[in-house]
Amino acid sequence: MIAISHRRSEQFGLTPDARPDFGPMSGTDLSYLVEQNRLLYSHAVPAMETLYQQIANTHNMVLLTDAQGVIVHSLGDADFLEKANRVALTPGVAWSEESKGTNAIGTAIAERAPTTVHADQHFLSSNHFLTCSAAPITDHRGNVVGVLDVSGDRRSFHKHTMALVRMSALMIENQMFAATFENAITLHFHTRPEFIGTLMEGIASFSPGGRFLAANRNGLFQLGLSFPALQAHTFSSLFGLPVSALYDHYRTAAPGLLDLCMHNGVRVRARAELRLTNGVHVLTGAFDDVPQASLPQPSAKTATRRLSGLRYLNTGDPQLEQVIEKVNRVLGRDVPIMIMGETGTGKELLAQAIHNDSPRAQGPFVAVNCASIPETLIESELFGYEDGAFTGARKKGAIGKILQANGGTLFLDEIGDMPYALQARLLRVLQERMVTPLGSGKSIAVNVEVICATNHNLRRRIAEGLFREDLYYRLNGLVVKLPPLRERTDLEIVVRKILSAETETGGTHTISDEVLRLFKRHKWPGNFRQLTNLLRTAAIMAGDDEEICLRHMPDDFLDDIAETSEAAPASAPAAQQMVAAGANLEEMELAAILKALEANGGNVSATARALGVSRNTIYRKLPHLKTSP
Ligand SMILES: Nc1ncnc2c1ncn2[C@@H]1O[C@H](COP(=O)(O)OP(=O)(O)OP(=O)(O)O)[C@@H](O)[C@H]1O
């Protein structure tokens, strides 16, 4: 490196015995230089003072330069300053390679790397009495914004000086980083929790919606991606969690460090800071007390689960509020909970939240969907089987879901679809708290809380002889009903929540009033599942457009809306019904166009003729038609 630098020095036209112009800047120019480097200067000066305290009385000085190697500030021992003045190691003088040849400051800038230049390694012979160690200081984009240097008499050389300089430079970078983003979430992370808050920590900032903004040197290293590559990422794509999980976590009563799984599979612990215009909050995670070695390594999905409790489901709908209130009263009291609700209303999410808020939260949450497992497999899936219980391929033996849930919660979704014969076995497990795997003579004690969910009317199934009455009474300690989406009064909040938590863009999109009005009128047969999928697609369609509008809606959704209007009873004219439902003129206009489009098989010209408007009017109202194939 030194030899290459010497060649560069020669190319700059310098000779070793040259005595370049050392004239420093005027006081005004120097003040201007400091002003131009205000952020660097204000964070570097305290770090320089700390560094100087460690090397005081060793015939050394500490120097700060700007990105071009011009000295902005210096601190030093009086006896050495005199010598330093002779070679112009003073504020306002440039120490780039171009003006001084090979030297630690100029070469560190040229190489973008920490550099020590000792004695006659300096290109100019007038500098041979020096030993200098310099480290570049970079900003959040990785641009060199300055250099920190310790220079001294060559006899004072100490091999630890370079390490001190590097650590101080890192400290300055981290402090500058922390001060750069005002409206952001800043994550401090490391694979080892004891390194959080030290110079070794990775720091990454995200917009409040979760878009990646920047990472410090160690952050880039830990994430294993370059700054340009990271710009395409979000909190969710890097850590597998929606950014809303951070907010949720922050609201917990005694948050500890977060446990996150990075995109490359490496697990890190983290502390988050939410720096918004109304103040700084420290966000930390709640899992400090969990003995990590005893836990299965959590996937990003389980980490998300851990972060959702009952209060985060409460987004203002009165029906749901009542459900949550009732559930809260029986938490931890061994009262079986049965959740009723249409498909996609969030039954599993509620069960998970109940588990998370229960005294069993540290235990497993195991969900089994009785409708999706073939009848012949449910028994082994639930109860497990012993080696040799089967002939053929599956003869290794397996632990069933009931035992997997030991110490935690077993969520039996679609319990109404459980085969009748198995219902008696399940009842026995619940009463005796023992499981006997298939093919085994031995019973194993098990301690599980059971939460059930169903979309069926179980009483009717009992009357039809499809469901056991004794099991029904064993399971329905508290029955709660989740409202379908069409009845929820908090749709707007829910939409915002899903947009920030579930979409790839991490909540950078807003939703237009027009779309929201359509949402409020829609029947949502698939409930949250349908809404979540729709918003994911719409956010992708919207791309860089901030607002999700009608043109970003998938055609099948618009078709559904049109069909709903079509299916309205003919007795009351559609317009009257819509007025009664509180629709405005724009919505009625839209519904009329959609209906006419439907009636004309999607033909825009025929629709325009039928409505007595131009084709352009139709395209203006439904711009997505233009881009439809
Ligand atoms: N309150 C909510 N806010 C945001 N998303 C939700 C909410 N409730 C449910 N979801 C989402 O909707 C989808 C379906 O939820 P879930 O599986 O809990 O419903 P379910 O009632 O158990 O469905 P099914 O009866 O079909 O099993 C999931 O992706 C879930 O994350």
Word description of this protein:
This protein is α+β, with helices and mostly antiparallel strands and 629 residues long. It has four domains: 162 residues, Beta-Lactamase; 126 residues, Beta-Lactamase (2-Layer Sandwich); 172 residues, P-loop containing nucleotide triphosphate hydrolases (Rossmann fold), CATH 3.40.50.300; 142 residues, Helicase, Ruva Protein, domain 3, CATH 1.10.8.60. The chain is built from 29 helices and 22 strands. Strands 6, 7, 8, 9, 10 and 11 form a six-stranded antiparallel β-sheet that branches. Strands 2-1-5-4-3 form a five-stranded antiparallel β-sheet, sandwiched between helices. Helix 21 crosses helix 23 and helix 26 packs across helix 27. The longest helix has 20 residues. It is elongated. Bound molecules: adenosine-5'-triphosphate. Adenosine-5'-triphosphate binds next to helix 15, helix 21 and helix 23. It comes from Telluria antibiotica. InterPro entries: AAA+_ATPase (IPR003593), AAA_lid_NorR (IPR058031), GAF (IPR003018), GAF-like_dom_sf (IPR029016), Homeodomain-like_sf (IPR009057), HTH_Fis (IPR002197), P-loop_NTPase (IPR027417), Sigma_54_int (IPR002078). This is Sigma-54-dependent Fis family transcriptional regulator. Keywords: ATP-binding, DNA-binding, Nucleotide-binding, Transcription, Transcription regulation.
In short:
This protein is α+β, with helices and mostly antiparallel strands and 629 residues long. 42% of the residues lie in helices and 17% in strands. The radius of gyration is 34 Å and the shape is elongated.
